[in-house]
Design brief:
This protein is mainly β. Among the domains are: 51 residues; 47 residues, no CATH class. It is built from 2 helices and 10 strands. The radius of gyration is 20 Å and the shape is globular. The chain starts with a strand and ends in a 12-residue tail after the last strand. The relative contact order is 0.08. InterPro entries: MORN, Morn5. It comes from Heliornis fulica.
Length: 157
Amino acid sequence: RMEGQGSYTLPTGTEYRGTLRDGMFDGEGELIFPNGGTYRAVWHRGVPTQGKYTFADGLGYKDKKWHYCDGYDRRFYTEICSGLKPAVFSQLTNLDPPRKIPEGCYDCGDGFYNPETRVIVDYKLRFLRNADDDEHEWIIRTCRKAWGETTEHKPKP
């Protein structure tokens, strides 16, 4: 069994780095998720006893008094840190600049969705899953879509 300091990569791509005892996470260690987020915790026999999740952009999650993206303040975390841009430069995602979405696809948060094939791939274009009817409808209704044409202002001649 795994014992001591080390790392272990799960089939999902999530990596654990820290102390292992009798084949389990035990002691200080962190999970590093494929999306860049991390969860640092103190583990006891594979179960976290205390820990903190940090998103890929550096925002730390709080389970109490969470004020990020609530009904009163809808700014992205990068806007909170760096300030708002002028109105002509809309910030559509927390990433600045936003990811370029392949033509005909949607950005569904963990990857791109092609509504014709109903396949979701990660941002490196590796297969993640097939969307069921409910997920398909949700993505079409709520997610950002690649534009097939530009929408620049064209002054009258």
